[in-house]
## 1
Amino acid sequence: MTTLFINIKELIQVRDSSILKVSGQEMKELPTIKNAFLLIEGERIKDYGSMDSLPKINADKTIDLTGRIMLPTWCDSHTHLVFAATREGEFVDRINGLTYEEIAEKGGGILNSAKKLQEKTEEELYSEAEQRLQDVLKMGTGAIEIKSGYGLSLEGEIKMLRVIKKLKENYTIPIKSTFLGAHAIPTEYKNNREAYIDLIINEMMPIIHKEGLADYIDVFCEKGYYTPEETNQILKAGKSIGLIPKVHVNQFNSIGGISVSVKNDALSVDHLEVMTEEDLEILSNSDTMPVALPSCSFFLGIPYTNGREIINSDLPLALATDYNPGSTPSGNMNFVVSLACIRMKLTPEEAINAATINGAYALNLSNDIGSITKGKLANIMITKPITSYSFIPYNFGNHCIDSVYIKGQTI
Ligand code: NIG
Ligand code: FE
């Protein structure tokens, strides 16, 4: 099956050779072709170029995109899309003056989600997560990472990971699965944290390994959650069963999580609302992708990741949603790209690079997605008729994605 798109107003993020990520000054450049064509053959991008150079092609289907822009789909490298219940009660508590940390200390937050998750069956969790996945697909997300971390018990964590595995099997969108057993310390282990860490390493991990339930290992390294030493211990154990670290660090405090993550060859470090000079320095000497989650800052009213400083330090930066019931009840990557421009002062070029090619890197998928490159998967999105690609972040709170193709198939 071949599909030919013609008269594309502008084809965005065109990379002739497959690059894995863009850093620093390179992020300001977003290569495009105006008045373009693109040919899909099967699951992959076969050819593209300017309409002036359109060869004679006998495609099965030809689609005229006059006035519309085409981009590679968004790559959302950080979500908690499987969860049991929303938490609008805490949202109201925050309006009335409590902080996210105060709510967590009172047994709300992640522990609240863990309690709710116990009461739901795998089937119920699956059908709710599936609905969320379908919703974000329509908004242009074409590859996604999903974490466990609301189980916080052997049974709960495995249940979540099985739901993610089933989503992987039933959907064509590339999905990566992350084991986040170390998301919080369960109440019953409050005075015996070592026992919970022991459960993670010696009981959960062997099952995860045996059933192939995860690609990545994550820890919430933060005051009141996991120390850098505990993070190190859990990441090392994860690595020993083939899981690659992707770590929650520096959301509220810089306590050494970046150093531990980089030493364990983390694929990404995520959040980074609070950064020191030393943290930036450590990242400069690494292959680890810094990931900002601006919707979380927006929703909690906490500082935004200083993306300008990260990019100006010649580092790469990726953007993701953090979709979860507590700190970010939204999986809309279009809004993330808007916030990155409006609040983090990224240019549209930088934000689109961060949400496509660099997001693909943070998923360990940049060989296959994240740019318009011959041979990559045909995961593409088409806008409504719009004036320019800067309209995408400008149009905040709305989105202009009209159609989405995953592996060459319209969804
Ligand atoms: O990335 N910070 C840790 N974990 C999630 C929030 C989890 C929750 O509040 O349910 C996050 O923001
Ligand atoms: Fe998160």
## 2
Amino acid sequence: MVETLSIAVIGAPGVGKTSIIRQFIYNDFSEVYTPTRSRYVYRPSVILNGNMYELKILDIPPISSFPSSSSQEWLDLRCRGVRNANAYILVYDICCVESFEYVKMIRQQIVENREGSSNEVPILVVGNKRDLQRQRVMPRRAVSVLVKKTWKCGYVECSAKYNWHVVLLFKELLGIAVARGMRLNHTSIRLQGALQRNRCTIM
Ligand code: GDP
């Protein structure tokens, strides 16, 4: 049986959500910024530790807040499926402090508003645009300590532009999701890239 994992990718406008997803699935990057206006669903498959998983990756356009109820989610087409996602990737731009503030707000709202075991849901905070390291606005270590120690979330920095740490971040998130959600006992994880219809990216 193939397990399906739904992952919501959330972040302020222009932080690189779509670029990260498209690098992961298509090995594709565009310098041209086309704002995401509606929710888009990608359905790649991945092989993790010898098992195949179908991913449902939700590219969420900017939302002012995490939906606080099922009816609010239902009324706003942009965030359908966000409340019940199995995992979250919260993206910020390491050169933009406001985008980190946005992630901070959404993380807090996920914890407060998700039904059931909110503390168990895997959340990975991603600092994108690592290639622009010189324009970084907050020290990496301070952010990493806050996210890992205080929020108990994962933290990865990546560059969607150079496809640096993009597979790693999905591997990290899936590792946590599998360990928490599916209770699989494993010691090593091998993520062999994204498999799309007629596509196979082997790392
Ligand atoms: P979204 O609104 O969060 O989905 O952001 P996009 O993925 O559309 O990217 C916004 C802009 O940032 C685009 O012009 C991308 O080319 C650029 N961008 C995305 N990722 C990176 C990155 O890692 N480095 C740099 N330098 N630019 C990036």
